[in-house]
Amino acid sequence: MSILTNLLDKARKSLVNRENDLRVDNLIIGKTTYTIKDSETVFTDMNFCLVLLEDAYGFSYFQDEIDYSLGNFVNKNALEVVGKKIPTYLRVAIMDALFCLINKEAFNDKLIFEGNLRQKAKDRARVLLAQVPDKAKVLLLGAATEIIEEAKYKNCDLKVLDLEKQKIGLRLHSTNIESGEKTDLEIEIKEADYIVATGMIFVSGTADRIFELSRKYHKHLILFMETGSNFGPQLLEYGASIVLSEFFPYYDFYGETKYFVSQKESE
């Protein structure tokens, strides 16, 4: 059974008496064009889905085509919608909204990143890799410039994989970005000490495999999550070592950015 399926079972049990909280009030779907630090390329691969309940939200980035007919699910019960045949990105965003309700009290003690977007991204990378020792072998799944920069600062033996074709072959801080589609993931995870991955692994359909291989080879799995951030704490149960949940609006928006770190007690 997949992680998302298990999480859905948990959500159904936790929210059984909260039907009035589950109406989908709004679906915001669109495209983002963006750049990354130290690159002049304008990337167009990323779309987004924001699901608003009356007292919660859920978010996912995705690379599929946008399906604007999903507006038909507005005013529907989120638990009913997530049980239908829907795009993975919508499923992840709705699951994120459900766990926004479930984890609301746990998230009362959010931490804060301040400064401009680059400073906040730098601070996120520093917090994310705080438990990674110098010179460790790190596999980064999802190219994020400041995380690459922080790993190189710690003299890590770093390998970066990404699924976006525009990013393949880019060189950032003396590190080449390689294709995740053309790489044997099991070999890469087996050879690394730490695996650092974005929440988009739940949209790309690679999450179950990454968790499975990380457990198989006893690797430290560290997640930085905008996509699916609200169910981040639950991922410790499936083998994640550290999860940094970042809450909307994210670091690249103006103002303070809130985040929450979940970590295994033994880590």
Give me the secondary-structure topology:
Blueprint: H1 3-14, E1 26-34, E2 43-52, E3 57-62, H2 78-82, H3 88-102, E4 111-113, H4 117-128, E5 137-141, H5 145-153, E6 157-162, E7 171-172, E8 175-179, H6 185-191, E9 194-198, H7 201-204, H8 207-216, E10 220-225, E11 242-246, E12 257-263
Parallel strand pairs: 5-6, 5-9, 6-8, 9-10, 10-11
Antiparallel strand pairs: 1-2, 2-3, 4-12, 7-8, 11-12
Helix pairs in contact: 1-3, 4-5
Short description:
It comes from Candidatus Azambacteria bacterium RIFCSPHIGHO2_01_FULL_40_24. The protein folds into 2 domains: 3-107, Enolase-like, domain 1, CATH 3.30.390; 109-263, Rossmann fold (3-Layer(aba) Sandwich), CATH 3.40.50.11590.
Structure description:
With 267 residues, this protein is an alpha/beta fold. The chain has two domains: 3-107, Enolase-like, domain 1, CATH 3.30.390; 109-263, Rossmann fold (3-Layer(aba) Sandwich). The chain has helices at 3-14, 78-82, 88-102, 117-128, 145-153, 185-191, 201-204, 207-216; strands at residues 26-34, 43-52, 57-62, 111-113, 137-141, 157-162, 171-172, 175-179, 194-198, 220-225, 242-246, 257-263. It has a nine-stranded mixed β-sheet with strand order 4-12-11-10-9-5-6-8-7. A three-stranded antiparallel β-sheet has the order 1-2-3. Strand 1 (26-34) and strand 2 (43-52) form a beta hairpin. Helix 1 (3-14) crosses helix 3 and helix 4 crosses helix 5 (145-153). The protein is globular and about 50 Å long. The model has no long low-confidence stretch (mean pLDDT 94).
